[in-house]
Structure formats: structure tokens, C-alpha cells
Backbone:
């Protein structure tokens, strides 16, 4: 719930093409200055994974990848480029689902080293310069978020939060939405269990995924065809903390769908 | 992507306690007038399922429920009230997952007659008057959304969209978020496949779940402890159409997790 009953999302234009080694925090500050945008304490800066991956050099050119025998086998099962599958498997802790080749629409749902369950381990070919370049997820998106947050705080004094998002599919439902794969400056969950509702009943299961809510909302201003990898969200009532995205990841032992 | 690069969400205060037979569209108009809020074409009115269910009389008192033998068996497996399980099974087309009783945290994930996959068929005990009252999902949430949209259009001339939301858990991730279980006045999906990205690559899988994005965003202003079941969202670039939430439901034949 917002303190003000109002939330505003603004996409930040003017972020130039991101290259390896770029200081994203600084690029965001310059883009904001160029648009006359001033940050406030408790703003949330939401950043698409793709530009974070590019800045961190998490880009692989498929022409330099030699697929293993297993990658070739899996690639045949899911109708994908064996070199792409090799890159995906390098990011994978376990395969959660492989589509049967008969469906004609290959799907490879895996659990990444970081514990995320998503298609293709988040390896993505769209919007990367060069036809054979693919991006990998940042090695530690919480750390990436923290570095950007600390840079902005150091330059502006503003104590805000940073979320890094990826666009993912979901079981049971069509269409993609964004989730938080990295987070700094806020609790990713809003634990309101134990509070009572308007009727005085104790809420038992209303732990909201705050960082995912923010990521999903910001995704509305982050379509891939537009060059807007950064969205500022203002007015969200979150719990301030160093934070991290790990609390959004369900323990596999308690997951009914893994 | 928003046309303006800016999205605003406002929670609408002043909605009184909703009772069976209430005209929700009219209540929303009065609350908006009371707050000096004017609707614009293309606004999205997001309404929590709970008040829609109450207005439509989709409330059952457990004291009047006689559990079947199967309900008693299932209730024991998932550590729930057999009468509640009876109500849930009445809304269920098939059981997708039942938690083993050993886990101590009973979970009953089902597919509803409407095709939604969610815990307890959306039957909910929180925030309903009377300790033994539970709400069921509206029989046809798309129709409920349409009735409200047409009432607002008739009274104001404004051509807006209406989304009805429920708060649900997700596989793999902790924390709840909101999804669209009903929708009118907009396409629930934004089908941008075939468009090209900033680099000229054709996007192959960027069909965004627009209505779920809006539902999830509005959920940030709809915590259950606050009496704000209605949120207005402005600035979202959606496809105008009669619409419906059905296109968000994946065909079970193509679902890897059912």
C-alpha cells in the first residue's frame, strides 16, 4: 500500500547504447539530468537486465561456442541452435522441463545457478548488437543493483532502491511479465503476516512480492522495441533494507512445481 | 509501452462496504465524484475480486455446508476445514497439486471451471463479514467487468477498460501478486510478435500479458488491510477491444506444469 495512495512510473529516455565497462549508475544520472528529472529518497530505479548484462560484458558470440555432445542432444529435443543450448547449459543447475520435440515449439525451462527458474536460463538473443551475440544474466544481480544504488547515493545523497528485471513466461498463463532478478535498498517481500484485515481477521498469507510487483509495473514502460531500459517508480510503500532478490526464490524443497 | 512514457496509479477511497446486489459501477462513480476524480478515455479501472464477489452474492457461509466423503478425505490430506474443501471442490474442474500432509502446510492447487489455476479455487475467507463466510470467484468475471464498464460509459461517456483482479501465489517464487481474472474494453495480451526491436531483429516471443501487468501494478495500492478495492491506472498503451481474460489462460495441452 502506498502512503500517498498514488504511484507514478516514468521511463527515462536518453540512455545511450550500453557497452562493456560502462558505468550504468552514471549513465542514469546523466539521462535524468538531461530530462530535468530529480531523484527523491525512496524512489525505485528499475533497470532491464539486458543493459546490465551488456555493461558487465555478459555477452557471448555464438560463433565462438563449441557445443558438447549433450548440448547437441538437448538442442535436437527442443529444436534450438546447439551453440545456444551450450551457453544455456553453462548457466544451468538443473533442467526443470524440456519440451518434447513433437510440439514443434521448443522450450527449455531450467534452474539457474542463482536459483531462478526460467526459460533458456535467461539467455537472450534479442536487441544485442551482432546477429550471433546473446546476453547472459548478470553473475550477481543483487550486487549489480547495489553498485548502481551506491553510485547514485554517492552523487546525489538520495537513498533509493534499485531493481533489475527480466521478462519471463509463466506456467498456466499466456503472455510475458517482468520479475525482479536483482534488488538493493529494499526488502523484496512485504511481510504483513500477522496484521489484521479491515474486519479484524489475522492475515495468514498476504506476503506480497513487492519487488516483483514493481518490476511487473515498470515492464509496462519497457517494451523491447523502445529504447527505455530504465523506469523510475515513485510512491511505493516498501521496507527499506539492504535487501536482495533471494527471498523471492522458493526453496525447491517446498515447491510443488519443480 | 506508454504513449506518454508515464503511468499513474491512484487508489480510489470512499467505497463503502459492498453488499449483495450493490451496483459497483455506480459506487465507483460516486466515490470518484467524492474525491473530485474525473475519468478519461483509456483509463483502466482495476477492481479487487472480493468486492465483485460480494456484490454478486458469491458468498457462502461454511455453517451451511455439508462436506462429501471425498471432501473429508482431501481436507485431511491438506489440513483444511472439510467444509471449506467442499466449497473449493464445487469450483474445481481438476486438482493440479495437493500438498502431502507431512509438510504441515496444506496446499490445494486446482483448475477452476473458468480455467484458472490457483490455490483453493480462489475461495477466500479474509475480509468477509462473519467468521464463517467465504467468497467464491465471480461466475463470469469478464461479464462482471463488462457490466461495470458499460455503466461507467453510460453515465460519463468515457470509453475506458475494466480489470478484475485476484491475489495469487506462483510456482518457484515466494510472495503473492495480482492477476487479471476478468477484463473488458481491452485486449488482455499485447501481441507485438513480428515487430522489430531497436536493432532490427524480429521479436519472436514478446507477447506481453498487459492485463496481468496492470493487475499486478494496481495490487501495490490494494493491500488487503486497506479498504481500497479500486485503483485507476492511466497511461498504459493497450489495444482497445471488447476483450476478455480468456486469452491469458494457457491451453492445458501446451502447459508444461499441469
Residues:
Amino acid at each position: 500500500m502506498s502512503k500517498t495512495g498514488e504511484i507514478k512510473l516514468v521511463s527515462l529516455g536518453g540512455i545511450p547504447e550500453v557497452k562493456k565497462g560502462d558505468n550504468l549508475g552514471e549513465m542514469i544520472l546523466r539521462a535524468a539530468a538531461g530530462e530535468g528529472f530529480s531523484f527523491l529518497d525512496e524512489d525505485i530505479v528499475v533497470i532491464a537486465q539486458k543493459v546490465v548484462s551488456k555493461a558487465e560484458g555478459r555477452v557471448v558470440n555464438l560463433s565462438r561456442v563449441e557445443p558438447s555432445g549433450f548440448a547437441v542432444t538437448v538442442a535436437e529435443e527442443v529444436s534450438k541452435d546447439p551453440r545456444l543450448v551450450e551457453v544455456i547449459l553453462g548457466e544451468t543447475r538443473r533442467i526443470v522441463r524440456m519440451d518434447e520435440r513433437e510440439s514443434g515449439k521448443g522450450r527449455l525451462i531450467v534452474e539457474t545457478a542463482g536459483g531462478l527458474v526460467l526459460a533458456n536460463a535467461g539467455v537472450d538473443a534479442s536487441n544485442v548488437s551482432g546477429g550471433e551475440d546473446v546476453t547472459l544474466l548478470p553473475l550477481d544481480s543483487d550486487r549489480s543493483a547495489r553498485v548502481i544504488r551506491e553510485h547514485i547515493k554517492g552523487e546525489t545523497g538520495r537513498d533509493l532502491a534499485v531493481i533489475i528485471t527480466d521478462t519471463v513466461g509463466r506456467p498456466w498463463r499466456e503472455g510475458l511479465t517482468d520479475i525482479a532478478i536483482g534488488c538493493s535498498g529494499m526488502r523484496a517481500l512485504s511481510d504483513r503476516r500477522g496484521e489484521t484485515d479491515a474486519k479484524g481477521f489475522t492475515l495468514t498469507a498476504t506476503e506480497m512480492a513487492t519487488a516483483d510487483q514493481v518490476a511487473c509495473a515498470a515492464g509496462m514502460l519497457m517494451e523491447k522495441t523502445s529504447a527505455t531500459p530504465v523506469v523510475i517508480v515513485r510512491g511505493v510503500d516498501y521496507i527499506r533494507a539492504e535487501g536482495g532478490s533471494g527471498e523471492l526464490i522458493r526453496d525447491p524443497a517446498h515447491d510443488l512445481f519443480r
Observations:
- Chain B touches chain A through 81 residues (CB under 8 Å).
- The CA atoms of residues 3 and 214 of chain B lie 15 Å apart.
- Chain B has six helices and 14 strands.
